[in-house]
Amino acid sequence: MKILLIGGGGREHAVAQALCKSAKEPKLYCFSDLVNPGINALVKKTRGEYYRGNINDSAAVVKAAKKSGADFVFVGPEEPNFHGVPDRLEKNGIACIGARRNVAELEMSKASMRDLQWKYKVPGRLWYKKFKTFEEAAPYIEEFADSVALKPARQAGGKGVKVIEDFQVYLQDDKRKVKREHAESIINEYMKGYDDIDYKLLIEERVWGPEYTVHCFTDGRTVLPMPAVQDNKHAFDGDLGLETGGMGSISCGMNLRWGKDDERAILTDGEYRKSVDIVNMMIEAIQTETKEKYHGIVAGQMMLTSVWGPTVIEMYSRLGDPEAGNVLAVLKTDLVEICEAIIGERLNTIKAEIDDRAVVVKAVCPEGYPNHRDVASGHKVAIKGKDDGILWASVDYSDKGIISGGSRVVECLGMGDSMPDASLKAEHLTQKVSLVDGWKLFHRADIGSEKSMHRRIALGNMAREIYQYREGKGLLGKRMIWIPGKGLVEVG
């Protein structure tokens, strides 16, 4: 068997490892813009071939798939889905694990995702407003009385989202200024170059609670859910600093438990099941809307809120990064068999076996990430000893060595019987990584730590107490929002 993997980041390294564990012993091929040293080693070990090129160029991907004789293609990142790479492959008779362009709209357009959610009355929906220009958005930025989340209306690599709390009356003028400036930066900077979507800016009501992601494999008929994973996006310990593409992630069991034999958890079993139901409803909605089957991976990036309980923040049309490391590290079922079942639309015959140990992933990043990737790139990377447990991410491998690409250099994966135990193992791996020229690296030591877990479980308990009270009073999802031009309006 031959498999072509698209993409060369940490997520794809985790996918490559999982594919190569298969009892079917596939030959691995890879097509990406940079050469990932971890994936390259697996390609050589299985006697495959590594191709360098533009992963969003569907013609180039088809050419590589034909050259390799791939039995199927596994698309790692989201942008190839948005550019119709799976569509082009399937039109050429090449099976693909990847969302077609129309169903990938769930992720690509945050505005379309919200439209769909409200149209089909999917639980966990937030009030929102979408805009094509800053001028359209200005009245809402000036007059909207509640705290808001400002977002690019398109998936932009996890960048550009800003939550602005507006509780202090004496700071309202300053907060309006921040809203205006960030809204303009979304339209002029973060959405620059994206001409495949009409709407540019999304304003959503602000909610609070612990975030988590539920990934599922689907063949369009059956959903095979994976454990909940929590990403840590802020750059520094204590959830401080700029938001990044992800500084690390945690998981244990299906519902983010403290440890494998511990009852403490961020989510209840019921909240996890409800989250899976919501993801399934979103799949059904997009398939009804597009009349196309969803073959591949879909994920709900969720939040446990005081308004709804499980609440959709965004949708993914692929595995998250770094969350893929968590999901695939505990997947005991053969990934190749899962892929074949998706292609044959017989996923209902597969039972997912999951290792219930804790997994903590910590990303190691060069100084300058996330906003100044130019200075974070071009540094030679060194690893002390073996790279077992390390997922190579934004690097390029050549005869000059391994060179940083400006984003996360590696993702260090630790497994243990509890989150703190796995966190310590991941922390040990972070100490093996350095840059030869002395340029500084940073990571978050607190991810999965005892203090961090206490804080997240407490936040979940607080949100749960409020939403369950509201549910008991028949008020789940109901709230009053001040909307410019309409006044106080009940939504839900």
The CATH homologous superfamily of the largest domain corresponds to: ATP-grasp fold, B domain
The backbone outline, from C-alpha atoms, is globular
Query: In total, how many beta strands?
Result: 26
List the uncertain runs.
167-171
- Can you give the mean pLDDT? 93
Going by CATH, the architecture of the largest domain would be: 2-Layer Sandwich
End-to-end Cα distance, whole Å, is 50 Å
Helix vs. strand class: alpha+beta
| Tally of helical segments | 15
Topology (elements, then pairings):
Layout: E1 2-6, H1 10-20, E2 27-32, H2 37-45, E3 50-52, H3 58-68, E4 72-75, H4 79-82, H5 85-91, E5 95-97, H6 105-108, H7 110-119, E6 128-131, H8 134-143, E7 148-152, E8 162-164, H9 172-190, E9 201-205, E10 211-218, E11 223-231, E12 234-236, E13 240-243, E14 248-252, H10 269-290, E15 296-305, E16 309-316, H11 323-329, H12 335-343, E17 358-366, H13 373-376, E18 377-383, E19 390-392, E20 395-398, E21 401-405, E22 410-416, H14 419-430, E23 433-435, E24 441-442, H15 450-472, E25 479-483, E26 487-491
Parallel strand pairs: 1-2, 1-4, 2-3, 4-5
Antiparallel strand pairs: 6-9, 7-8, 7-9, 10-11, 10-15, 11-14, 12-13, 14-17, 15-16, 17-22, 17-24, 18-21, 18-23, 19-22, 20-21, 25-26
Helix pairs in contact: 1-11, 3-5, 8-9
